[in-house]
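Could you show me just one protein sequence together with its fold in token form as a worked example?
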Amino acid sequence: CAGGKGALNRHEGRALGNGNGNGNGNGNKIEFTTFADGRPDGGIRQSADIEDGLDSPGDIFVFDQKLLADDSCKTVIGRNAGYCIRTDPGKPDFSSKDHPSLPDDPANNWGQCTWTLTFYEESGYEGTLQVSGRESDMHTSLISIIGGTGDFKGARGVL
């Protein structure tokens, strides 16, 4: 199996759909675990700064990474692509200036993220899952599954 140093971001998903795909027809439940490959050779990871050189509200982070199976070899089963807009950075922390009613959390960073999990045939699924929601850089987040195609047509759930 190929290895490498760097972050593997775990996705655990539960989807319920009403599509006619192999795994999702008639409201069947699909549970899965995948990893987004954050290692240097795992794909594109690029930020767009608002020119202050800091992690600031409004900064955008785009990514198009390998989607890996939850197996011992971390088999590539698709792509994980999307973007996040920084809404509340940790350090330096702007939340007291931009969001005076929110508690200050300098130990975390938050972003509003939207992305698509595209599954290759090798995954055992066919199609895509679209997810969107508020994501923590440092802690577990529950992100809404807002739709899908193929086996995931009409999917709703949590990633």
The helical segments are 95-98. The radius of gyration is 17 Å. The beta strands are 7-16, 29-38, 43-48, 60-69, 76-88, 110-119, 127-136, 144-148, 156-158. Residues 95-98 form the longest helix (4 residues).
